Structures are given as structure tokens and as C-alpha cells.
Amino acid sequence: MKALILEKIKEIHLTTIKIPDCNNTETLLKVTHCSICRSDAKMWFQGQRDLILPRILGHEICGQKLDSTEKFIVWPASTCNTCHNCKNGVENLCSNIQVIGFHRDGGFAQYLKVPKQSLIKVPKNIPPEIACMTELLSSAINAIEQVNLQKNQTVLIFGGGPAGLMLGLACKYFSAKPLIVEKNSEKLKQDTPFCKKTKINFSDTAGSDTFDVVINAAPDPDTLIEGISKLNSGGKYCLFSGFTKNIEIPINLLNEVHYRQLTLVGAYGSTKRQMRIALNILKNNIQTISLLIHKIITLDDVPLVLPEILHGQTLKYVVDLQNLSDTLGN
């Protein structure tokens, strides 16, 4: 089969390898589509805490079993099902988690071995190029749940990339009032069709308003400093996107957390339950989600677009693997 393998940092190559063998807890999935996450680009450029090389990247996956035309999305993890977190419904925090595209090979390949427990059936009306974006939306839902978002609460979202837009959509689903702030004028233009269709407010500045919740969908640590200052008393800041450089937090800002009872929470990945919620949202917003697709590309194109994705210059690239020569051999 054909696969795109990250051999070393900044060295990614399309090659032909053997179809993976599955054990009795796994299923062989024929990948139809895999959307590219910015974390894929970051791993290509600098690596990541959980990345084990060499690796086939890609964790936003839709595919089908070899003996079926039914489509499935993949919750991109395998878990122990026995630790404290698994037993309490937060399997994304499993002590022994193995994430597809990080610890295990991912979806930038014709075929993928997937834990059976990770497969979620896709309704027939959802196109596979839309379904593969379920994972990103489910991560947004996880963030929303971490801040216990309530109806009519105001939410400031830093970052107008695909993650920020998905966070905005999730806020609307929970009847909250999001504002997406994106300082890049070109990205604001890209965001316009999606935000107008979803009636999400967007701007290049937060202005003088304060908010009940702030979420960062941008790696700039300045969003933490500005975000804390933008919170109403008793408000919550969700660290959704990891920071890419060190930050010095002024002591008076930390005192604001103390005196105004602010809460700082993290959000990482999602659970299978949240994947199902996200899939249900997609089912009713197919045309809206399609506005996030910048371009559908081939597997050969992926190395060419990774720098563009890394620098946050575009919406979603989706890789279509359906037209690759279909061989189960080497």
C-alpha cells in the first residue's frame, strides 16, 4: 500500500509498504479521507511529546471496512479501559493511551489498523470529506464541557483557524454567544462565509468587552495574558491550544486569578461520547462544515501544504485517498 511516512523531523516521504496485520481486537480500515490538522504540521516541523518516529501521521480519519461500504470515523486512540480515567468516562486521559498518528500509525495511508472500540459508524447522509472533521469538532466540544458553558454566556475565542471556527460552532450549539478574534486580515476574509452562515461574531479585536469564558485556539502565549484580563469575575479560561514559546506571567495577573476567582482549565482531545455528539452536529450542518474545506488534495500533495498549514495561512486541507491504486500487496 502507499503511505506517507515521517522518517525524521522535516523528512516525510511517500512510499510503498506492507498492509498492516491486525489482531483480534483490531479492524483493517480502508481510508477514504483524512483531513490535516495543524498538529500534523507541527509534528513534521518540530516533533511532539507523544510522537514516536518513524510514523504515518493523520488522526482525522474516515474510512470503510474491506467487507462493507459503510463509512466509519475513528476515535484516534486505544485505551486500557481499566484505569481510573477510563472507568470514569474520560478515556482521553487514559494512563496508557496510544493515539493514532502519534504513538500508532495514522491515516495518511491507504489502509490502517484500528482498534475495534475506536470505530463509530457514519450516517449515510454525511459525505466522508465532512465526516473526517468530526475529531476536531469533538475536541471543541471537550473544551466547552471543561468550562461548563451555559446558555447565553459570552465566549471570547482567540484564533480564526479551523479550530477557532469549530469552537464557535460548538458554542452556538450550546446556545452561547461566541466572538472569534483573528488579527490576520487575510484569515478574517477566509472566515467570513462560515461566520456569516453560522451568525458567529468575528473581529480583529475584542474591544473593551469582557467575557464569561475565554478559549485560546492560537499558540501565542499573549492570548493567556490578554484573555485573563478579559474575563468577568468568576470567569473561566480554557487552554485549548498549546503554546509554542515561553511566557512570563506578571504577578498582578496571577493575583487577578486569586481576587476575582478565575478558573484556568485545560482541554486535550476528546472522548468517544463527544465524538458522537460532534457527528450529530455535523449531520445537521453539512453545508456549513463544507465552508471549512480549503481544498481536497491527494496524498502526494501533503508535503507541499504542510508549511502553509503550520503558519496558519489556510482553512482545512482534506486528503482524498480513494483514487490510489487499490492493492493489498507490498
Describe this structure in words.
The protein folds into two domains: 161 residues, Quinone Oxidoreductase, Chain A, domain 1; 127 residues, NAD(P)-binding Rossmann-like Domain (Rossmann fold, 3-Layer(aba) Sandwich). The protein is built from eleven helices and 18 strands. The termini are close together. The protein is globular, with a radius of gyration of 20 Å. It is an alpha/beta fold and 330 residues long.
Briefly characterize the structure.
The protein has helices at 38-46, 84-87, 128-131, 134-146, 162-173, 185-198, 222-229, 251-259, 272-283, 286-290, 302-310; strands at 2-8, 11-16, 26-35, 55-56, 60-65, 71-74, 77-78, 98-99, 111-115, 119-121, 154-158, 177-181, 201-203, 211-216, 231-239, 263-266, 293-297, 316-320. With 330 residues, it is of the alpha/beta class.
The SSE order reads EEEHEEEEHEEEHHEHEHEEHEHEHHEHE
Total DSSP helices: 11
**Count of distinct strands:** 18
What would you report as the Rg, rounded to the nearest angstrom? 20 Å
> Architecture of the largest domain, according to CATH?
Alpha-Beta Complex
CATH class of the largest domain: Alpha Beta
Determine the fraction of residues in helical runs and give it as a percent range. Answer: 25-40%
What is the CATH homologous superfamily assignment of the largest domain?
Medium-chain alcohol dehydrogenases, catalytic domain
Descriptive key words:
330 residues, Quinone Oxidoreductase, Chain A, domain 1, Rossmann fold, seven-stranded mixed β-sheet, six-stranded parallel β-sheet, 11 helices, globular
